[in-house]
Amino acid sequence: MLMTWVAVVAGAMTLAGAQGRPNILFIMSDDHAAHAIGAYGSRVNRTPNLDRLASSGVRFVNCFCVNSICSPSRATIITGKYSHLNGVPTFNRFDGSQPTVAKYLQAAGYHTGMIGKWHLGSEPTGFDQWTILPGQGVYYNPAFLTPQGGRVIEGYVTDIITDLAIDFLKNRPRDKPFFLMCHHKAPHRPWDPDERHRAMFAGAKIPEPPTLRDDYATRTDAIRECTQKVFKDLTRRDLKLEPPAGLSGAARNQWWGVKPTEVQIRVDGTSQTLTGDSLNAWKYQRYLQDYLACVQSIDENVGRLLNWLDQNGLGSNTVVIYTSDQGFFLGDHGLYDKRFMYEDSIRMPFLVRWPGAAKAGLVQEAMAINPDFAPTFMEIAGLNTPADMQGRSLVPLLKGEPPADWRTSYYYRYYHDPGDHNTRAHYGVRTTTRKLICFWKKDQWEFYDLTKDPNELHNLYNDPAEQESVAKLKLELFRLKKEVKDDDQYAYEQPPPGVDGQPARK
Ligand SMILES: [Ca+2]
């Protein structure tokens, strides 16, 4: 491993020399679905600043994560490896002694920083500076951890993380390029907006997605059995219902944890009781209003960071990336959260502005996956991709020149079963036109033709007309599984959880 690392760093010096390498600003939010970004065709909100980034850079429309939950995606992004090789299949502690892109860039002379949500249990390694939220962190007056200790900062988390990112940039050494990972907590559950954006969406009527009332006909048991349903599983806390006066502590948390089947609301001064369909429709609105208000704050803060770069002469030599650790169900298939290998959950927004190198305004349809991010940062910094990273650099795609042998399929695997939402473990393959999913503990399968059925409503696994396609895709699934060296390392046993406390010093 050490040999590889030394060789890569030495290679960097010959490739690019020490001067003139671009800065890298990687902005990542948590659970921000691509379909809640204007540039991605959102029907539910407007995001002028993210759209500005998209129009001045490249917008990837087929960027996918390989395991759609928080900590695993983060571990994959910094290592360039699938969960079964970086050791984070669920919410377990990341072993920070392994090689990461931050370590490679730091060794190659980059000034490296990590600000915001880390959520990997161990302390960040490979960063000259870090200021992270403990575990999930909170939205208001959040506590932060640094190598020097902890502190609470008054205010709203998305504003504060942006402030801290700007402080990092202001105080950086001027003789080095920087690599900054700026990770927002928002718009993760419990979707607590700041007051200004809450007011902006209060009472807004958000269009419902076409699959909100999906009846799951033709699907396997997994989607029926999961508890991530907007109508059934949002709690009083999620819906921001006001607890009775006098309740506090454990009693209040218990009240908040209830999934209500009846809700009293006040409309024009009169009390109304909602049940059944009217309650379901109201729950969707309450969920999206708060989620989108959290997104609006991110959009504004991305704009603030872009403006700061431009005003400080850094716009032209800084690669700015915006993504989210995975997608999210915005009522699609009646769901919230992520986890499933369905499109809304696996698709990541991925916007890249790189003046003079990336083709401005390009919409890139080639398939990107989150193990590609680390190799991309390596190439931007003039470094070769280490042999043990599993992704490929996206730099040719940024230039509009995908290599002829670029991937047309990718392998996915989700392990957290039953997890927080009774979501079954599964693996699968997605090609440019088809998808095959296997819930391996039950031997249940789903097969979709994405060209005819982009909303994945018709599981054709048992359709006689599709048997040849299913068989072909099974071969591809097992070819990819072998190629990525998945030997079922975590198929039935997962490491203990460990990401939600204070990061432990080794
Ligand atoms: Ca997430």
What does this protein look like?
With 506 residues, the protein is α/β, with parallel strands linked by helices. It contains 15 helices and 18 strands. Helix 2 packs across helix 11 (276-311). The chain is globular. It binds calcium ion. Calcium ion is lined by residues 30-31, 70, 188, 325-326.
Short description:
By secondary structure, the protein is of the alpha/beta class. Helix content is 30%, strand content 17%.
Measured as a percent range, the helix fraction is: 25-40%
Rg from Cα: 22 Å
User: Number of helix segments?
Assistant: 15
What would the average pLDDT be, to the nearest integer? 95
> How many β strands by DSSP?
18
Tell me what portion of residues adopts beta-strand conformation. Answer: 15-25%
Q: Please identify the structural class as seen in this structure.
A: alpha/beta
Distance between the termini: 21 Å
Low-confidence stretches: 10-19
C-alpha geometry: globular
The description of the largest β-sheet is: 8 strands, mixed
